[in-house]
Amino acid sequence: MTVSPPRPKGPPLNALRAFEAAARLNGFSNAAEELCVTPGAIAQHIKSLEAWAGSDLFVRQSQGVRLTPLGAGVIEDFSNAFDKLGEAVQNLRLRAAPKHIRIAALPSVAQLWLSPRLPEIRREIADITVSITAMETAPNLLREPYDLSIFFEDHPLLPEGIEICRDSIFPVCTAELAKELNNPSDLINFPLIQDTSWSEDWKYWTEANYPDQKIKLEGPVFSLYSLALEETRNSAGILIGHEPLVRRLLDLGELVAPLPGALPLKRSLMARIAKPATKNQALKKIMAVLLGSDKPKPQA
Amino acid sequence: MTVSPPRPKGPPLNALRAFEAAARLNGFSNAAEELCVTPGAIAQHIKSLEAWAGSDLFVRQSQGVRLTPLGAGVIEDFSNAFDKLGEAVQNLRLRAAPKHIRIAALPSVAQLWLSPRLPEIRREIADITVSITAMETAPNLLREPYDLSIFFEDHPLLPEGIEICRDSIFPVCTAELAKELNNPSDLINFPLIQDTSWSEDWKYWTEANYPDQKIKLEGPVFSLYSLALEETRNSAGILIGHEPLVRRLLDLGELVAPLPGALPLKRSLMARIAKPATKNQALKKIMAVLLGSDKPKPQA
DNA sequence: TATTAGGCCTAGGAAAACTATGGCATCATA
DNA sequence: TATGATGCCATAGTTTTCCTAGGCCTAATA
């Protein structure tokens, strides 16, 4: 029954954002990563918010946290509110610089698929700036400042996003090596190059095409697909190639596909457009170029 | 056409809030007041946001600011987003402490109308805490941490909020002074007490009831109605009384209304409930007490 | 029994936010 | 034409907030 003089303040906005991220991503560490801070910072924000509210939002367990009923009861509102806010920010950014389009893509996609298409974009669309940011995981387009994301995505039950092209895998190497590679059993004689993030590729491909064939699934491993590709061009071995990423070198004749049997994966190169960007003229043109440019030449 | 390494960050949340407030309230100074900071702080926030976006949001004029087309184009999104966020915070606060109800009211209302009703609330509703914050202007219940606001509001075209009772004005004084006050012309012999924020009251009342009567519209002025009322009880003069605020002293017999002619104003004491609080049990009971307590004894 | 993953705490330092002050331009008033 | 009031800007200095670092704890895993 107090009659307090100063207008009481709400909680700090940053604490709310930390709470929302921690709840959505299921842990302080994940939230910390998204917000580019240390987990300790998240813990402090959330503690201050809990102090403000007067009760706990998370149950701390030895490994990970769990929302309390109170936390679970309010998180949806916060997520929606921050989505709206993120959308408003996206809208502001895009309206302020409608000729500046920001694209987020997997490093390999940025370098091997997107980069070769930039000259055409520049040619087609005058007076435009395109920024490309390479990252391992797709950004949340409701929150992060990108207009377009291009990533490989496993096929969901219900299609969403814009499919650019289906992913499929098959071995590739230089013409030089291909001469000594006449049937699958010859693979045993070469280093089999692979990418860390797609370490099952060789297994999938051999199982699908030559289930009886035993193949040593060892060889150089690269964390950057473009490095793996470069090594392959240096005849360092046979790479398990992803069609959208190797097509250009095949077309140029710098690499060949020595063995038949391309394996289509339940995964595609997908584009997603931030909602406020859907009406942007520059982006529409970019999409037209990117989608038009993709006339797959089936391999195998 | 850059390929930048670190994930670019969005703008600081506090800058967004400053922008939203400045746009909504039409000026940096007003925003500063709402956010309890100096205008300079707002100016800096907005400048940083403009720097982030790369273009101006406000046109600075010698007296006041005006939104640029860009600013005008995005402000609605921001306002909606912050409304949502405010609602989420309200919801959190209320769920965290469902037995703690916060009421905002005009100082005079808090002291003269609300305060006498608190004992009944305490009696009716066990286990509850009521905080009352007195303020001159009604809080934005979507943003500020109150569950209920009680203020005088002029009648709008379309009714909104919950009407507690109509405001009407008429002179009041002690029985002692009333003896010497038998007709309106006697008013000239007494100091006419008034409140700063309702400085037209005496004029309205005399014009409505005794248009031919000339009255000296001068006398002690108080910025707190409860002070004016206290002085009236000390027989310092005649107060132009607001029915909801003086009724109790009339009922107690400590003051009387010496002259006929209560003037109903196009204004009522109105309650407003924050949206997340509408479902709160404690608040429902409080509203029942407050509305039930008001059985006006018409004066004349 | 190590190891790891995830979170907590505290101290100290970095960054952000805010205040204070002086200045300028416009408008209304005297 | 002074004069004051309003409203914003710029800068410097201060306060507050935020963040990191590093040590500690617990439970699950190998």
From TrEMBL, chains A, B:
Which species is this record about? Kiloniella laminariae
Q: Gene3D superfamilies given for it?
A: Periplasmic binding protein-like II (3.40.190.10), Winged helix-like DNA-binding domain superfamily/Winged helix DNA-binding domain (1.10.10.10)
Q: Which keywords appear in this protein's UniProt record, sorted alphabetically?
A: DNA-binding, Transcription, Transcription regulation
SUPFAM superfamilies linked: Periplasmic binding protein-like II (SSF53850), Winged helix' DNA-binding domain (SSF46785)
Q: Which domain of life does the protein's organism represent?
A: Bacteria
- Protein name stated in the entry: LysR family transcriptional regulator
Residue span, HTH lysR-type domain: 11-68
Q: Does Electron transport count among this protein's keywords?
A: no
* InterPro entries tied to this protein: LysR-type_TF_proteobact-type (IPR058163), LysR_HTH_N (IPR000847), LysR_subst-bd (IPR005119), WH-like_DNA-bd_sf (IPR036388), WH_DNA-bd_sf (IPR036390)
Task: State the family it belongs to.
Answer: Belongs to the LysR transcriptional regulatory family.
Pfam families given for it?
HTH_1, LysR_substrate
